[in-house]
Design a protein that fits this description.
This protein is an alpha+beta fold. Helices cover 39% and strands 25% of the residues. It has a domain of 66 residues. The strands form 2 sheets. Strands 6, 7, 8, 9, 10, 11 and 12 form a 7-stranded antiparallel beta sheet that branches. Strands 4-1-2-3-5 form a 5-stranded mixed beta sheet. A hairpin with a 2-residue loop joins strand 7 and strand 8. Helix 1 packs antiparallel against helix 3, helix 1 packs antiparallel against helix 7 and helix 6 crosses helix 7. It is rod-shaped and about 90 Å long. The two termini are 45 Å apart.
Length: 319
């Protein structure tokens, strides 16, 4: 006698999660390289400005764009000098205000009058690049950790004991996203579970017998439908999902569907990336460079997020 075959692993869900992770890794690494290359360039003027002095403000509102402030000070040789301090944004600075400045004696001798102070444009540029490096690295770590945890935890759930349930395949639409859900009638009551799509779901008649690995009274189970593992994309719920909820049509001949349709549906969300970039540049005050970095990073992250929420690639062809 032969035993019951083991449920098939949900390779499509694994592929979808990795597909969402890959663009984040690629864009993140590129941004890390670009920022790491830029950092020495923005640090160079400050590194060369190894002399300090106490200056007084002469006048403000100078070029560039009203951010320039003329200051007067005596250099290390006692020679009276004037210097240009460039602020991050135009602001009024009262005459005769004392300011601690840094300057490069060699540059003053060559005719440059640029000086630096804490909080000015030069220090801000360095801070923006350093913060960008930290932010991109943090996003890479978080996205990689969450995706890895999802991959490992779902695979390990197949080791748990099974419970018999009845299952109905639902489609739930919220905004631009349409996802598969299972309505499960369990020994502890009716539960709803968001899942990653598999063709077995489209072949599933309403109220069909199924199995779940794990305790249906807990927050997470792994359904098995037609011998196929169906990875959950969220936790069991005691209330029906919100949104446009309807029973999925049954297609006895449903077969595998490539990832292209899923990608085309989920990539629409990335149109929000420039909005997030503008918001970040405004809040952070990092200007065009901050907008470019935030937008470039937001695109893959916005594509990655829907991959955690399950899938239903054939929803767009259904009535």
């Amino acid at each position: 006698m032969t035993g019951t075959p083991a449920p098939r692993p949900h390779t499509r869900a694994r592929t979808q999660l990795l597909l969402g992770l890959l663009p984040v890794l690629v864009v993140g690494v590129v941004l890390l390289v670009v920022l790491a290359v830029r950092l020495p360039a923005v640090q160079a003027p400050l590194a060369a400005a190894d002399s300090t002095a106490t200056a007084t403000v002469v006048r403000d509102g100078l070029d560039p764009a009203g951010r320039g402030v003329e200051v007067a000070f005596a250099d290390v040789g006692g020679t009276d000098r004037t210097g240009l301090l460039v602020l991050r944004s135009a602001q009024e600075v009262a005459a005769d205000t004392p300011v601690a400045v840094q300057y490069d004696p060699a540059a003053l001798g060559s005719g440059s009058n640029r000086v630096y102070a804490d909080g000015d444009a030069a220090h801000g540029a360095v801070g923006d690049v350093v913060f960008g490096l930290v932010l991109v690295l943090l996003v890479l770590l978080v996205v990689t950790a969450l995706t890895t945890w999802r991959l490992v935890s779902r695979a390990r759930m197949a080791r748990r004991p099974t419970t018999a349930v009845t299952a109905t395949h639902l489609l739930v639409g919220r905004g631009l996203l349409v996802r598969s859900w299972l309505e499960l009638v369990t020994p502890t009551g009716v539960r709803w579970l968001p899942v990653h799509w598999a063709p077995e779901l489209d072949r599933l008649p309403p109220d069909s017998a199924a199995l779940v690995h794990g305790d249906p009274s807990s927050s997470l189970v792994l359904p098995v439908v037609g011998g196929q593992q169906v990875w959950p994309s969220g936790r069991l719920r005691r209330s029906a999902p919100r949104g446009d909820t309807r029973q999925a049509p049954v297609d006895p001949d449903a077969g595998p569907v490539g990832m292209g349709r899923q990608v085309r549906g989920d990539v629409v969300v990335t149109v929000l990336a420039p909005v997030l970039g503008l918001l970040w540049a405004y809040v952070d005050g990092s200007g065009a460079a901050g907008f470019a970095v935030a937008t470039a990073l937001s695109v893959p992250v916005l594509f990655w997020l829907p991959q955690l929420l399950g899938s239903d690639p054939s929803a767009t062809s259904r009535g």
